[in-house]
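Let's practice the habit of predicting before peeking. Look at the sequence and jot down your guess about where helices and strands might fall. Then scroll down.
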Amino acid sequence: MDTNARTRLRRTTFILTCSSALVVSPLAATAGTTSSSLSSVIGPATSAVTAAIEDGITHDQNPRVPEGASWTEHYFPSSDGSDVELHADVLRPAHLPADTPTPVILSVGPYFAHAGQTGDDGFTQTGPSERFNDLIEGADLMARGYTVVYVDLRGFGGSTGCLDWGGPGEQADVVAAVEWSANQPWSTGKVGLYGKSYDGVTGLIGANEEPEGLAAVVSQEPLWDMYNYLFSNGVRRPNHLGTPYAYNSIASVQGMPDDTDRYKTNAAYEQTHPECLADNVTDTQDPDPDSDYWQARDLAAMAAGSTVPLFVTQGFLEPNTKPEDMQQYLDNHDGEQRGWLGPFEHVRGNDRGSDGVLRMGREGWFEEVMRFYDEHLQGIEPSVDDPAFVIQDNFGQWRAQDTWPVVTTTQTVRLEPGSYVDDGGEEVAGQGPADDGDHDMEHGPTLPPQAQGRPGKPPRVTDDGDTFYTWSRPVNHETRITGTPRVAFEATGTGNVLVRTWDVAPDGTAVMFDEQMSLVDDGTVAFDLKDTDWTLEAGHQLVVGIGTNTTRSWRDTPSAETITVSSPTLSLQLQNTRNDVPTHGDRAPYLDTYLRFYTGTMEDRMQGTFSLSVNQGRG
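Done guessing? Here is the structure:
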């Protein structure tokens, strides 16, 4: 049977199966009891409560329900033919009849448990998650006539099954959640996915799978390839074990005392299936990105051919869900694309700091998101012509582009050969990483590990024994390095390599702006750095360092071998800044935080051995 036929069969079977899915009262105390039969269980004295249950629970009845919403709970199967049962909290506009069709904004993820997003949040009664109350309230979704659906991934909240770290099981859950939401009598059949971090990942999964009814995706600060959160080209990150354990902890969050028996039984699934937690730790520890496990979770590669309209955000200096394989994803994705990109951290488009300043630096997040949803879920022509992409540069200035990246020139430059000892550097040898690695995506580092407590070690000479460097000649014009730099070389020796890039001013002030690690073995070594968007001012130089790992962003095992590097090259995508189209926005506060920790001095400034040349024509 071909793939399309299997997909059609899966969807047909799923839709037929969903016709038997139950609506369960948020107040019911009997597992498997539908709201319509509840009165026979709890007796006539509570018939008024039963009537309220059938109509949903409002804010007046439970303060955890957003104002203007009516809350019900539902269960339905996943789409992979397994016995996994998924749980959904549904928030409907309370002013509408229960069967009035509305568009649906759906989030699927591990953070919607009634007790709390990643643990016990101290609630005194059960209720729907508060995770995206900011969207519900900030975009006035209930008054606009949108239904909001939260679905627990397998193994989390009120869903059964084993957690699957973005794998085929969770992919089946996303398909099921979209198709179930699209096929309810209160749905117009148009669904938009919304999320940030892990539920931003499930948005990308939805875009890749293109389930029936999915009309648009908003994905903030996702992972573009699940492998990259735990490893880099075979090298372990500090959280390679801590993150699986963190999600095991979230999966173990139990139901609340006033949850239904059915919810509490499902939430306790891991207690009777301890293999779920064990497998989540062992399965994620293969460092080979080409293994079957990781290939099934390479979202960027799996995006090929997708046409679902997509709106993303990504921080280029993000210390948590880093900008790795974003360009590959966008290149593979064939549908409409929108994005807010810049030098910000792991935040939402609407997030403000304690000082009230927007963390991304740009007003209008909810307004633009709703124009996107209104267009694709309701067919409403936008009243504002929003740019496809808005990008904040390393000077804090915003520009508008039709796509990202915009590449004026592609250039491969020759780097200097050299050698280094893979000993981890004298200064940090024998020290553990500052990042203990025990975090999920919502609680990742706010700064890269080596910057926690002290600035990263800046290079002070052109060859300090840990790294050897290659300098460009000063650029004649402002030159933007964009897209995905790629390094390649021939190696002799076995161990690890760290490649970093700096922007060096005429006075020697140096800012490290990109880095990546890889395992090294005899022969050809080639790998991508992180996606970037960094502008060199006229007169500045690009410096590239190759050497042993002197940072705390990886938990590598130094080999103590001498690694000889020959014929190294760096492939770059360059952009002419003369065609920039300014747009509104302020400086992201994180940019200054990053610069404070990653600005050092290159004392021995060199003339340079290669030139960066970008076409300076307009248009």
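How did you do? Residues 415 and 568 are 5 Å apart (CA to CA).
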